[in-house]
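Lecture notes, structural biology module. Today: joint structure prediction for complexes of two components.
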Amino acid sequence: MENEIIRRCRAIAACTEEPGFTTRTFLCPAMREVHALLCGWMEQAGMSVRVDAAGNLRGCYAACAPGAPRLYIGSHLDTVPHAGAFDGVLGVVLGVALVEMLAGRRLKFEIEVLGFSEEEGVCFGMPFIGSRAFIGDPILDPAVKDAIREFGLDPSLLAEAHSADDVLGYLEFHIEQGPILESLALPLGIVEAIAGQSRLQVQFQGAANHAGTTPMNLRRDALAAAAEWIGAVEREARGVAGLTATVGRLEVEPGASNVIPGRALATLDVRHAEDAVRRRSVDRLVTCAEETGRRRGLSVTSRNQLDQSTVPMDTSLVGMLECAVTLAGFPLHRMTSGAGHDAMIVARRIPAAMLFLRSPGGISHHPEESVLAEDVAAALKVGAQFLEEVHARLV
Amino acid sequence: MENEIIRRCRAIAACTEEPGFTTRTFLCPAMREVHALLCGWMEQAGMSVRVDAAGNLRGCYAACAPGAPRLYIGSHLDTVPHAGAFDGVLGVVLGVALVEMLAGRRLKFEIEVLGFSEEEGVCFGMPFIGSRAFIGDPILDPAVKDAIREFGLDPSLLAEAHSADDVLGYLEFHIEQGPILESLALPLGIVEAIAGQSRLQVQFQGAANHAGTTPMNLRRDALAAAAEWIGAVEREARGVAGLTATVGRLEVEPGASNVIPGRALATLDVRHAEDAVRRRSVDRLVTCAEETGRRRGLSVTSRNQLDQSTVPMDTSLVGMLECAVTLAGFPLHRMTSGAGHDAMIVARRIPAAMLFLRSPGGISHHPEESVLAEDVAAALKVGAQFLEEVHARLV
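The predicted structure, tokenised, for the full assembly:
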């Protein structure tokens, strides 16, 4: 089955807006082909399939009796430009495979497999369109509504995208998109929280001047100040367990080789599982930037662009996932997701849990993104065990 | 006279390609107006004026007897875009004023005031067209020849731009374009050398990765490495007297706030009066970049783009300038020019010396570039004394 899952993911990767690459944005024409492929596999597994008004593909597998609660298994079907074959898609294909492996057997709960229409935020600078519609967030952007209409759906019916009333929870399988599991030689990781995140812009304003005629002691070099601070950012992150802090963008003006930089504009991305830890680090780094500026005669300003709290996964579901991992015979590893996922949005309304699969080389958002067949087999085994856990705990 | 000199410089600044700013590139139409203004002042001072085939304006003031040697006094008449009124022009206007102050008196040598046509390198990415023609460097660029033709001159006659055979030397007055004299509260500085210069590109190649999912110990962050090295560049320059070292440009890729930088490309500009000192510092900084890369698992490559030796000014002329400064009653200050000047080119063939005038605020290449009337008066006094020195030393 694991090889079939990988084959299906690769077949979906061939549905693209851009020949030679995998690029699939919100409700692009290629998404119809994805829906057609998945719909076939879903129906073959005994599911009834629909596309809701937010463009989410949904396959429902009935329980042994009517009126049963529902378990959701899902992830997203859109991609970044020039993507790999597994980010998002693997979670949906795995969900379908788990139902297929039931081979017609009915459980005490319904299973709905969700293929969310949008998670990456490529088209509208606003991610999670599919999962936000699912939890009942209003979709207000007229461009999104136009895209929905263009795909042949009716945005006035967005309420039909909402989740059911009697819900057990939401489970998302996803590649880690990072190197941690590989570095620990582990196939799987149980996500206990999706890390909170701060994004800031920090500006160092000094004085541009002639690189040849301005002696070192009379300079107010914005890049030298920013460089000193970037060193402090790295030291802060290395000194606080579990913290990541990144300066990903740095613009230097005027940017001529023979002119001392007058202005440097840096971004700062800070993440940690504990909001208080993250915010303390951000405060320290802002203070550090200001002190660096003061000492060097520069003016430093910082602007908060995002302060997103940590989203914990549901403890009960995480516990059941741990049981499943143990019973399936794999080592337990709890971890924090540094990246955002649909589960982060869904968790606002529904108990949510996530299982990470090791990412070879930590590579994602890249054509070379991959997954090991043995890890897919492990995830399948854990997923099947999880379904048994849920089944056993229902009266 | 000093106020008249400043007035003349400001009148020349009004000759521009771009209304509202001072922008005057090689042989642009506005240069004709500059020539007309200077020609008037030169003839009034008793000089015979011509424009040579390289577009240099030249006013010659005869000696008391024929066959006398010649002293050149000059600087350039072109500007950077959105320039100030004094860079270059002041040296030419001061030269004319010194002749005017002779009030018809003839010395034992000829004085030729040179207004070089091009120094800044704005048009053809190749500076010093005027002074290079003057010392007999061939002008090969067809675009330069076209510009000469378009101005109504004949590029086949470029040999007429060459300097005379019996030459005493070349004296250039120029604003400092830096903050040193102001910081020392000195009106004037004697340039003893024009600093040698190295330019390099240094590339840090790491691995771009997700800022949220890649823990600090598994990163190969190109910007963090570059920042560490930029700190070392600054320390090196602060630790070596007279050295300047500048990272003026830094390009970071991919440059997204949530992606660890995979590549950083930096420029390095290093200058010092002693070539051996400069080259040792460059070697240390290249080694430091490589070590930083090795320690962090990055590959570092550097490319030399320029290795220009220091150009010393003529010791005999510098000595006479020192005498003149002392006799004129001003404090002596010898300094290195961190920027290039026409004197650097002229010195290849002719003994050359330079006198710097204090730059208020260290500002140049900017509309706010200025000069103090008292400093112009000081330069005039020193210039007149210098002429007397030269006169006295000739048999």
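Point to remember: The first helix of chain A runs from residue 2 to 13.
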